[in-house]
Fold this protein.
Amino acid sequence: MRVLPTVILLAAIPRCILAASAAEVGDQVEHISLDAAECYRILDLNFAKEDLKIYLASGYLIFAKPIAGAHLGAIFVTSEVAGDADLLLMPPSRSERSSLAKFTGSPTLEEHFKAGAFIFTDGTGDQLFEQLQSNPAAKKSPDMGGLIVERWTSVLANLVTSFETRLVYDILSDRRDNGLFYMAVSGVKLDNFDVLYDPTASDQILAGKLTYRDNRSYFDTWTSFQARSFRSAAASGSAAPPRVTHYALDNIRIEATIAPDLAIQAVTRATLTLPERQPRSVVPFSLSPNMRITSASIDGRPVEVFDRASLRANLISNQDDRQLLLISDLPLDPSMPHEIEIQHEGAVISNAGNDVYYVGSRGTWYPRTGVDLARYDLTFRYPKTLTVAATGKPVEDRTDGDWRITRLKTDTPVRFAGFNLGEFQSVLVERNGYTINLYANRRLESALARKPAPTVAVPEDQFPHPRHSIPADGLAARATPPDPAPRIENLTKNVIDTLDFMTEEFGPTPIRNLAITPIPGGFGQGFPGLVYLSTLAYLDPGQLPPQLRERAEETFFSDLLEAHEVAHQWWGNLVVPASYHDDWLIESLANYSALLLLERKKGSKALDTVLDDYRAHLLSKTAGGQSLESAGPIVWGYRLESSLAPDAWRTVTYEKGTWIIHMLRRRLGDEKFLSLLRDVSSHYHTISTEQFRELAHKYAPATPDPDLKIFFDNWVYGTGIPAVKLSYTWHAMKLSGTVAQREVDDTFTAFVPVEVQTGSKTDVYWLATGTDPAPFSISLKSPPTKVTLLAANCLMTIPK
Ligand SMILES: [Zn+2]
């Protein structure tokens, strides 16, 4: 499972009385217009937003008419004959410089531009405006203004509309410290691109470009990093001013009615805690695009709901839910909790054929704010022919006429709550304090049965099947379609084995009720107390469609998927990533946990076979002729899914990540490695990549690379799969030689495992590689009988 994108992280703001409704402000934003009378001929107007420097050497700057008293937009253009402007951005880290170079050809962004459109809620617009009023060199140029208005009004309006919710939020909240600065640049070399400074984001500076390729749009993030003041605050240990608001919901009560046509009508009630000491009236929420809020109240008083699309803001932040606002006419007292009630409705369930159901928007079907753990109380009312499975412990299950009512509550706070439904048969098992409910469909969905299938969109952000999409022709060739039910016993046994194994290795999870449920498609997802498992995982290997009957596919659906998703009860629900840079760690730990179990059941050969496949995928080439692994360091997270390498995100996150954990295990040894994992699961709720490295340091051998900095620099923060050649001689009781690497750049250094046998004794030495062959010398008491590079323990290739 990929962790849900962080929900809204907008600014924190006081506001006493709102002069206008959010809808009115939104209308003004949508109809923003440039003011020909406020067009200035400018020379050398320079300004900076932290690391981002903008030099408007000569040209025209025209402001939009103020909204709510503030200058929120402006356009800069150079004149036809002359004029110049440029923009400078230097990323502070090697990895960010290499990201920028990959997309733009240069490790720094230094671009001349002919035009730029600005949006600001941080006060920059007002500052520039005031500066020009007091600058005698700035001459008003209304004629030029008229031309610019004609050409640029719609451009600015489009851009502003695509940030509408954020702008309305900032305007209504009336504070500039947390406002945003955005610029759409029309560059001389790089064409159109975006730069953004947002103090409420975890990486405040961002540059990138909206691209379109093979009928898909991408936002290619060229670079994104912490702004200078945040970096120096972090380095000096002084706390940066809290820029990120922290709304919290708890005691979330959802009553959902699922109609026979699968439409949902729900009311979500919750206790809302405000972030700071100041009163506020605007609360941001996120929700699936397939749901809409029909009404809402806070403390029993109706509130305004502001809900409009903000496409660009969502693309840049990689969010598939959308942001909306609840606006109270009275300020909310931050010293006390508030009761919110939101009525919402929509369609997040579809029929995949044969009455097999697909639940979409699995983490966004109810409104959320903040990212805290919460307790849930869920009630579902639905046609009595169906069964609902969900996060939590069932506390009520009854029928009422044609309806069935199922209610569940969580014993402990969890990250989010999901549900699934179908015409299920089920098995209930009590084991080691866990209550496991395993649900299976009674039939196959159309895609797998004989009837032609309505297509079900498979989301790309979950643990997907490695190579094939789900076959369209399904199992059409078979005389009778297979029945998903018989494997239910096997699956039950697998789930028990997985829970036993992982509880023994990592300790028990606080969530003791686990529902395993089917979902059409080639993926799975592990929610707290609820696992979605590809319907293919319910088939016996022999029943898989012919295209999926290869060894690797069988292993994926029969062995790995279920264990990977159950492992998310630990990695993903108990321990969560600190930011998108750390998502890989959670996915890799979940996947490696599944591989540890595979190894326990089927031996180390089975583990090595999967890792060999992963290595081959990582070395496979993109359309541009580069290896998938070279798309970027694993810590780039979702940014790896760019127009340059659409498939790289999955392969690097899951498969290279699994290799990284495997190499770490080989470096630490099994016992210390498992202690490390137990340490992570018992001490961390959120964990960053650096925290993980520091913890691993405690378990690492004293040599080489005791703090694992070289290991992380190359494998985690860098790219490269070295081709390694070992040369050695035995002379004067010494084994000496060199280790040479190719296919990686000169700065790459790995320690590779070399197994030396002397008589009946076997030792593993970790030797440094180098582009200039790195020499080594090992004293031995007797001549070696065998010296081998262990490719099974290191992500490398050994050319013949
Ligand atoms: Zn996963």
